[in-house]
Amino acid sequence: MGVKALKGFKDILPDEVHIWQRIEGTARDIFHRFGFAEIRVPILEKTDLFVRSIGEVTDIVEKEMYTFTDRNGDSVTLRPEGTAPLLRAYIEHGLHVRQPVQRLYTIGPMFRHERPQKGRLRQFHQLSAEVLGSEHPRLDAEVMAMAWLLLQELGLQVSLEINSLGCPRCRPSYKEKLVGFLDRCGDSLCADCQRRRSANPLRVLDCKSENCREKIKDAPATTDNLCGQCRNHFQEVRQCLQLLDIPHKVNSFMVRGLDYYTRTTFELLTGELGAQSAVGAGGRYDGLVEKLGGPNVPGIGFGLGIERLALLMSLQDAHGTGSRPDLFLAALGEQAAAKGLAMAHALRTRGLRVILDHEGRSLKSQMKAANKLQARYALIIGEAELEKKEASLRKMETGDQEPFALSDDLESWSDALRKKLNS
């Protein structure tokens, strides 16, 4: 057997790419409507960036990052998430000076050495959107509304769950209560959770073990231990979501797998993908920019997994006709093929998707190819049709066929055929 892709790395084949293009195109449209601008950042960063931002006692840093030493002896890492590289660029280029509130998004691959499964790969792709410079709860609702609108326009049905993790003022007392509860669980927790309950107790709430999830179901809730400011902030976020008519529910045990979140966190969930229920997630990370050496500005953002969105769109048949050709131009004979090349080009310049056969195959073979490509129409041109100046236009779905006049004036002829195909 020849060479194969690495485990957890997947080729995106031509019959899938149109779904990805639709996701990315719709995302860019939605993001621009909300005033976001695109930024493109490297896939390779210094390891310290992710250790400082994500946190040492997290699955991502401990188990999942692709980290290695480069030829200069520096520890570098393929980015496992999109927020930290974007913030590094924000700080490095002083973007806060240009505009006090920055709305930025990036699209691209991320890398985590996880166990590959449905909707989860070791190279995966994310849409990441971040707003830097405002801590107003209305902004939290606006960011969630943007993610919600994107999924609605892609034809996907999801649910929204939200939580508040509090701030540096109220989180210490919550952690103390949580540690007390976890200590009472004793050795019944998994080995990872036993280690984390003192180093980073909130990570225990993110454990995927069914045993641990059962043990912590009565743990103290974050929303019951917020300070007055965080409680008011969370209440206003919920009021704004209600104002925008976005349904949601509170999940007091949602902490996410990253250390940098404060106050609002959220997940967008589906029941269509089994255990991999989250198609997107995010939250507020006030203090992270300063921690990475930048100004003391608040921030909020989210990431959406393109693989999971594409899989969900396939399951829900939400992708429509995709890259299906408008017309298959079946030319029979050299003279017809030469004429067909000019005709196909004229149609393509008018926005139509046209496939032209260059192999001189029989009409039967060309019609099989048109069917396989799911072309909407086929235009059949042979030597006899050129003499009569009349081709045959076939609607592939029904097999109905009708004559269509040919003309030496390709401009007007192309306009007429485009009108016919779009009618």
CATH architecture of the largest domain, please? 2-Layer Sandwich
The strand count comes to 16
* Cα Rg: 27 Å
Biggest sheet, spatial arrangement of strands: 1-5-6-11-10-9-7-8
CATH topology of the largest domain: BirA Bifunctional Protein, domain 2
Which blocks of ≥5 consecutive residues have pLDDT under 50?
none
Instruction: State the share of residues found in helices, binned by percent.
Output: 25-40%
- End-to-end separation: 49 Å
Shape: elongated
Largest sheet: 8 strands, mixed
What is the tally of helical segments? 16
β-strand amount: 15-25%
Domain count, please report it. 2
Name the CATH homologous superfamily of the largest domain. Bira Bifunctional Protein, Domain 2
The top level CATH class name of the largest domain: Alpha Beta
Q: Based on helices, strands and strand pairing, what is the structural class?
A: alpha+beta
Kindly report the average pLDDT value: 89
